[in-house]
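Bench notes, afternoon.
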Amino acid sequence: MSVPAYHRVLLKLSGEALMGDQGFGVDPGVAAQIATEVAEIQRLGVQTAIVIGGGNFFRGVQASVIGMDRATADYMGMLATVINALALQDALEKQDVVTRVLTAIEMRAVAEPFIRRRAVRHLEKGRVVVFAAGTGNPYFTTDTAAALRAMEIRADVIMKATKVDGIYSADPLVEPNARRYEKISYLQVLEQGLKVMDATAISLCMDNHLPIIVFDLRKRGNMRRAVMGDHIGSMVQA
């Protein structure tokens, strides 16, 4: 049996990934599909942490544009990520995967507070850890939270799940002739303004030499292929 290329990974999921073809909320079927794939890599011995967004319920940036106080809007967005984390925890535990939700905003009735050493200990014990509420601070995206948590737990790689099969020079759904990058540097991502992750997240990864794999979540088996080191999607590195 082949050995996984990565020992500890951080999977970044958008909130929209959970809603499937719905316009809002969580599609239990989609959550179950994601949980099945996470369970598969967990059984390979890969320690798995997840950061999930909240865009299927609420987007703080969009709310601030129409007049809501930005900090208030961002806190509401953080609470939306907790809803998604609990939904994903439920789906994972239906796959017999022991899961812990750790949140940057304390709500002890539903999740554990984020403590770095506790998170690492859960991973070492073979539990999937879902990080919720972003960084716990307004003005920071869940992309930045993913980069920060990956650094804190010393992940080997960030796996960013998307709706396309990698990084393109333009939106391939709009520009059919957009160029796909198999490998690209952090600086190229920043200089070209590519929408991989926000600039703060990319800069954090660059400063700490943390690679990012961007892959298509919708294709069954891609998550396993990524942790096994197969060439799928796009790789961002120095």
